[in-house]
Amino acid sequence: MARQTRERILGTSLALFNARGEPNVSTNHIADELGISPGNLYYHFRSKDDIVEHLFARYETRLDEALLLPEGRVPDLEDIWLQLHLVFESLREYRFVYRDLVDILARNRKLKLRFARIMVRADASITALLRGLAGAGAIRASADEIRALVENILLIATFWMNFDAVRGGKTHADEVDLNRGIHQVMMLVAPFLRDAERHHLNALAATYLR
Amino acid sequence: MARQTRERILGTSLALFNARGEPNVSTNHIADELGISPGNLYYHFRSKDDIVEHLFARYETRLDEALLLPEGRVPDLEDIWLQLHLVFESLREYRFVYRDLVDILARNRKLKLRFARIMVRADASITALLRGLAGAGAIRASADEIRALVENILLIATFWMNFDAVRGGKTHADEVDLNRGIHQVMMLVAPFLRDAERHHLNALAATYLR
Questions:
Q1: SS3 content of chain B, % helix, strand, coil (to 5)
Q2: What is the pLDDT of residue A52?
Q3: What is the model's pTM?
Q4: A148 and B100 in contact by Cβ < 8 A?
């Protein structure tokens, strides 16, 4: 029962943070939405930051799973697209982290360190993937180019939803267009492919815009 | 004299917003910092939003100047680097806009529309530049590739400072490393260049990391 309430608090907090932005949601809002007293909420979590940290830990686990590389074989292009989808799905599921990223990390040193660690792991994972592709001759890129490419992939994945939000139309974070984000990452990689794969990828990428 | 006070209010607000983040600075902080009364501040600006809008208008002018293309000739690679430098300098000068971009635009519909307009103009300017280079044979890229490239350039320029901040070391926005941002944009364009230019650019880009 206590455990069920804990889960409900986390689930409702995630939904509210995603919909309104974490800085705009108080523990009172969360208790109200659940129809429980603030006292009951504080019995389970000692502060809003405590809730944020728990959600962040789940997000970290979710993202790590998405970043797993295939074992026992060299990754191919299909592996990249699968990984990209899983990563973007995780980002959307915990999008409150990204909407106010600078602010949230500036306020909480623990999360700042954790986020930096996540970036280091994502960097390592994408680098391994691209080096594998370069080693197999699927892409043609120098070590410097791979380094810069990895950094640009990280930047675009991290800020795609914010870019989509500030750019124009979108009023609700729910409408975030993940396919266009995935398309933009694909297009980063495309110019490093051999001509045949590049045309293939461009055709594939175009289907993401429909 | 009134005009001078107005200028001092704008200058001090910009410095405080940049240093602490706009959501964390109140009109009282600004008045305090200037050693004037809140009443005096309100004589010049009716609210903090009013100050933010004035600064935003200046930023818009500044960025539009940075985005001007050379007249009467086809732009070359040197033009891109010059433009990149000027654009990144403008972003740094008004970095508070970017630090809390999603939040600021969500709170102020007028700024949201203005920012969308800025993006449309920047998009048009970069597209013209790249089409010019493609037309002159300096880069090899399809219309789709140019479209995606422009979008990635915009995203990276818009969120470079935030990426730099959340990624790791930086604790002060003042330390933002513009050269690395410029390097990352260069590396987006590099793979579309002919081999000779690509090697030249990679060598040039590497100097930005020293």
A1: 80, 0, 20
A2: 96
A3: 0.88
A4: no
